[in-house]
Amino acid sequence: MNAQVLRILDKVAPSEFFPAVPQNFVVRPDGQLPARDLLYRPDVSLYCLDTDDQLAYFVETTPGVDLTMAPFLYLAQYQHARQLFTVPYDTLHRIAGEVPDPARLICVYSVGRCGSTAVSHALGAVCGVRSYSEPDVFTQIAVLRYEDPARDDEYAKLIRSCTRLLGRGAGTLSVKFRAGGIHLADLFQQVFPDARSLFLYRHAERWLESMHEGFTAHLPGPQERQTFLRYVVAQAPLLMPFAVRHQRQPTTVEAYLLTWLSTMDTGLRLSRAGGSLLPVRYEDFTADPIATLAALLAYCGLPADEIDVAYETLEADSQAGTLLSRANRQRAGTPALRDEEYAQARAVLAEHPTINVPDFAVPT
């Protein structure tokens, strides 16, 4: 039961937001080592899946780099990667079988651009909590489930193994997902019935403005468009019905709103189904962060006396060093949305039978 060692010759991910996929690296084989050794290397972490060849990729990062402090785990792993290791899925499951489930699991779902990275860092400041922001193995599993929803047993097995390996040695594991992770929430609850789940969201128009400011200037070019489209369609399952209904592709603003709406729609369905999901509005978080954090700690079963250390993390820009940092967004100077673009967004909302106003509140 060996792992293949891969020497990194080049890093070729086309953009900062590009998903974690094997093609982000140019590599050559560089020997083997016992797969169990991956469990005991402190700088080795699970990076991505090769869904075609059914391989799991681990990355060894620069010694001393704290991946829990990164705005986005997948990006920090890529930037600090020194070498890679691959194991077949059956080996992944076998070594994960040597690791217990996390004693406590916290799942942070969100629409994005709503303080979820800040919440992830705040939870990570609590003693005994290891918090990762956006491990992309789960993004990949969400894409697989969208494309082939008949294999939930396989996806549940991958979720358990990947979660165990990310949480090895931690008392409490907190995972903040990319927005598409909400479409795995029911499977996570099935695999980990005692998990505590948060759902962070925001006023649709304020969210749209934040998305436009942060992402419109960095939309994918031709080299990355095909991969991005696959991930976006899986994250926003309402996109394709919209295109069929209107007999055209959505505009950028419409696509943004359909992404927000897809995430909100799944969050609402889970909440109505009685799942263990605590909705948290960005507007409430910013209006009273201490009270909101206190409620989150209580809901997650974390000690109330950790509120001060959690609150202190909010003073920093949680996405510093990325294109989404406050400084970079200010430098970008993206033009403001036009009146007709707000009208497009409201027209998308008006088509939904329930979530048809921008300030919709998910019932608690």
Quick structural overview:
The protein has 364 residues and is an alpha/beta fold.
Written description of the protein model:
This protein has a five-stranded antiparallel sheet with strand order 2-1-5-4-3. Strands 7-8-6-9-10 form a five-stranded parallel sheet, with helices on both faces. Helix 2 (89-96) packs across helix 5 (152-166). The protein is built from 15 helices and ten strands. It starts with a strand and ends in a 14-residue tail after the last helix. By secondary structure, the protein is α/β, with parallel strands linked by helices. Helices cover 43% and strands 19% of the residues. The protein has a domain at 2-96.
Write down the overall geometry.
globular
What proportion of the residues is helical, as a percent range? 40-55%
Q: Which value, in Å, is the CA radius of gyration? A: 20 Å
Sheet with the most strands: spatial strand order: 2-1-5-4-3
The counted number of beta strands is 10
- What order do the SSEs take from the amino end to the carboxyl end, as H and E? EEEEHEHEHEHHEHEHHHHEHHHHH
Largest sheet: 5 strands, antiparallel
Strand content: 15-25%
Mean pLDDT over the residues = 95
State the helix count.
Answer: 15
Distance between the termini: 47 Å
Give the low-confidence spans: none
Given the helix and strand composition, which structural class is it?
alpha/beta
